[in-house]
Design brief:
Structural class of chain A: alpha+beta
CATH topology of the largest domain in chain B: Enolase-like, domain 1
Radius of gyration of chain B: 19 Å
Helix content of chain A: 25-40%
Strand order of the largest sheet of chain B: 4-5-10-6-7
Strand order of the largest sheet of chain A: 2-1-5-3-4
Number of domains of chain A: 2
CATH class of the largest domain in chain A: Alpha Beta
Structural class of chain B: alpha+beta
Oligomer: heterodimer
Strand content of chain B: 15-25%
CATH architecture of the largest domain in chain B: 2-Layer Sandwich
Largest sheet of chain A: 5 strands, mixed
CATH superfamily of the largest domain in chain B: CO dehydrogenase flavoprotein, C-terminal domain
Shape of chain B: globular
CATH topology of the largest domain in chain A: Ubiquitin-like (UB roll)
Number of strands of chain A: 5
CATH superfamily of the largest domain in chain A: Beta-grasp domain
Distance between the termini of chain A: 56 Å
Chain lengths: 167, 292
């Protein structure tokens, strides 16, 4: 039996009609046409489906649609500002943090949550926070470098103090 | 998947759904184990009783006398960030930090980890070592069980149909006590432990071990207390030789399986080393706490 759910995705609220046993991921992709969140494993192992639910990153494949109703949902489609890419998106492209691209939406959404919690993360902080995001192409070093670089860009834009580390 | 989702708004309503649905219903906490099991076709349920909207089942509360009380649906990420857990229960926080990745830890709950009853459940050895108890509710009332005795086999718990875990309680640590956890897995994240050890050590004023609890994970079908190791330490000064002996005694008490992750003898070797290290770390923390 289908139900109506009121979902607020990337600031836009709309009704979606679906069955309550559906995942948030399937609802986003098939119901709302937001295919940026990827369905890699559908069992919480790869995190390519990461979205922010009330600001915290979760595997949307393991969230029932009803659990997301009434909450703020941010997908990769809601990360960029207006027509310009988010500093994380730009850094991933510039520094080779993207190869096949399948893990990239999840990486960027997760990194976005990291930089909100820790605007100046160490490499260890980045690796710890992104440990659930699996990438089979890059070897991770370029992803870590891209997150570090985006963090610098964002801190500079926010007018904060210069980098405290040299490494 | 095809199941109905019931969304009780109160505990009373949740318990009445559970009683009514019986075996055809499943209690849903974080969903990171249950939804997978259903999706893989392992188990079919007519309905899933989603506990996420029941007030009082999440959150942590600290009291200097009573210790830490947390709802069964408290996520591992919340435990990881809780200032009181970080100060008093290193073992639990160290276990929370190695569970899967951040995204999973924002969903997965401590009650779910216990209820899933995997022999490798990371939160169980710390809760056993810390002497935690768990409150169980049903329409016929409430009972309290030590976490140590609430897992009865792989995937099996003391929960009767219609019962759910509601609250976990960890006693306040005594003075001059410390605790620690360590897990070995080939990968640092998104992996399942080959063996894990949690220990809580209390020292007397002379620096001897007044009391200790040691719990082992992934080396037997149910959570295992290393009672012979504990007995060897009580009343003694924790020398490296004694810590080594405690490791040996712990390894001898295990009943590990051989599987794709490691052979039984490998698990035994790992748990021996982990035990020696973890009790030394717990004792060092106890000594530091005594010096404060």
């Amino acid at each position: 039996m289908t139900r109506q759910y009121l979902l607020t995705v990337n600031g836009k609220t709309s009704f979606v009609t679906t069955t309550p046993d559906r995942s948030l991921l399937d609802t986003l992709r098939d119901g709302l046409g937001l295919t940026g969140s990827k369905k890699g494993c559908d069992e919480g192992e790869c995190a390519s489906c990461t979205v922010l639910l009330d600001g915290v990153p979760v595997n949307s494949c393991l969230v029932l649609v009803g659990d997301a109703a009434g909450k703020s949902i941010v997908t990769i489609e809601g990360i960029a500002e207006a027509d310009s890419p988010h500093p994380l998106q730009k850094a991933f492209v510039d520094l080779g943090g993207v190869q096949c691209g399948y893990c990239t939406p999840g990486m960027i959404v997760s990194a976005c949550a990291l930089l909100r919690e820790q605007p100046d993360p160490t490499d260890e902080d980045i690796k710890f926070y992104l440990a659930g995001n699996i990438c089979r192409c890059t070897g991770y070093n370029k992803i870590t470098a891209a997150v570090r670089s985006a963090a610098e860009t964002m801190r500079a834009a926010a007018g904060s103090a210069p980098t405290r580390r040299t490494a | 998947m095809a199941f109905a989702v019931l969304e009780p708004a109160t505990l009373t309503e949740a318990l009445s759904h559970l009683a009514h649905e019986g075996d055809a219903g499943a209690a849903l906490a974080g969903g990171t184990d249950l939804l997978l099991r259903i999706r893989r076709g392992g188990r079919k349920y007519r309905s899933v009783i989603n506990l996420k909207f029941v007030p009082g089942l999440t959150g942590l509360a600290w009291d200097d006398q009573r210790g830490l009380t947390m709802g069964a649906l408290t996520t591992f990420r919340a435990i990881e960030h809780d200032p009181h857990a970080r100060r008093h229960y290193h073992a639990l926080v160290e276990a929370a930090r190695v569970i899967a990745g951040v995204q999973l830890r924002n969903l997965a709950t401590v009650g779910g980890n216990i209820g899933n009853a995997s022999p490798s459940a990371d939160s169980v050895p710390p809760l056993v070592a810390l002497g935690a108890t768990i409150e169980i509710a049903s329409t016929s009332g409430m009972r309290v069980v030590p976490v140590e005795s609430c897992i009865t086999g792989p995937g099996k718990t003391v929960l009767a149909p219609g019962e759910i875990f509601t609250t976990i309680h960890i006693p306040a640590p005594s003075t001059r006590s410390g605790n620690a956890f360590s897990r070995f897995s080939p990968r640092a994240a998104m992996d399942i432990g080959i063996a894990s050890v949690a220990a809580s050590v209390t020292l007397d004023t002379d620096g001897r071990c007044a009391d200790c609890r040691i719990a082992l994970g992934a080396v037997s079908p149910i959570p295992l207390r290393a009672t012979a190791s504990e007995a060897a330490l009580r009343g003694e000064r924790l020398t490296p030789a004694l810590a080594d002996l405690a490791g040996e005694l712990a390894a001898a008490a295990t009943r590990p399986i051989s599987d794709i992750r490691g052979s039984a003898s490998y698990r035994r070797a790992i748990v021996r080393t982990l035990t020696t290290r973890v009790i030394q770390q717990a004792a060092a923390r106890a000594a530091a706490a005594g010096a404060r």
